[in-house]
Amino acid sequence: MKRWGIVTLAVFLMLYLSGLGRQVQGAEEYPVKPIVFILGVEAGSDGDVLSRPFAHRVSTLLGQPIVVVNKPGAGSSLAYREVQSAKPDGHTIGWASATIIINKLQGVSPYDYHDFTILGTYYTAIPIIVASTKTKRPFKTIEEVISFAKAHPGDVSIATSGVGMSWWVATMAFQEGTGAQFNIIPQLGAGAFAIAQVAGGHTDLAVLGLAAAKPHIDAGNVRFLAVFGSKRVSGYDHVPCFKDVGYDISWESPNLTMGPPKMPKHVTDVLVKAVEKAANEPEYKKFLMERYTIPNYLPPDKALSFLDGQRIVVRRIMEKAGILKEK
Q1: What is the pLDDT of residues 289-312, one digit of tens each?
Q2: 65-79: b or e for each residue (b if 16 or more CB lie within 10 Å)?
Q3: What is the pLDDT of residues 208-225, one digit of tens each?
Q4: Which fold has domain 35-124+253-321?
Q5: How far is residue 277's CA from residue 273's CA, in Å, rounded to a whole number?
Q6: 165-179 pLDDT, tens per residue?
Q7: Interhelix angle for 46-62 vs 265-279, to 10°?
Q8: Which CATH superfamily is domain 128-245 in?
Q9: What global pTM score does this model have?
Q10: Topology match between the domains 35-124+253-321 and 128-245
Q11: Pairwise CA distance, residues 120 & 113, whole Å
């Protein structure tokens, strides 16, 4: 009887340990269901256009669908809050731009990039300036814009992203760097809103990315006047950088993917590897360059250092603009 009891106990222990092993193995598996990728900009904006192909590549690498959810508003802080508060199991991740630096500085959000699990950057966006061809003064060159704005302070209108968003920072740098005074009109979102304003002739200018502007440039609704980067755009070689016309003005916006804080290491490792492979995929890099966007993969540690450097620049601009809330 005792022997039978011992055998029964041994069998029970084997079954128990086998089940425990399966549970542990299951806990190590990732991903086990579709992943939600939260974008803090509207559909059709630069961040949306450039991020969806990236998310598709990550999905292919992970073997699970990635559902892109647009959640614009409040300088993308609504989206950031949703990612930050999500369960840290890797099934909710998100996009971030320079606003992940800006929002905390201007008091819009208690979070910045230190409050997330950084998974890596995948591109750097450089804004451009376009002019409407449908207003009463369809500017043909950036020099003409600056000269007119200096002679008529506040008359030239510029559609840009919401206050504190990346294209807004670029617009403020443009105003500061030229010494001209513009009528800056922040939109509820980013590129898709700005291009609608300028292409419809509701504003004279817009600051946005080429991804959102290109269809309207090609259609003749807007004229491409200048770029904020150090190089001219391939295919638009006639369009100057600001340094070409005598102004030391530049701005670039890092774009990255991130998850909630305290994600398990095995989940983070899987995502970091997928982000690196997707960001460096040749066809995706070609897609980015065709839209005047710099393929720019940085692993989490280097991304953190890059963001720290950008934070210094943003803080100075916001302090001059009088909207810095951080002491």
Answers
A1: 888 788 999 999 999 998 998 898
A2: ebebebbbebbbbeb
A3: 988 889 999 999 999 999
A4: D-Maltodextrin-Binding Protein; domain 2 (3.40.190)
A5: 6
A6: 788 889 998 998 999
A7: 120
A8: Periplasmic binding protein-like II (3.40.190.10)
A9: 0.75
A10: yes
A11: 12
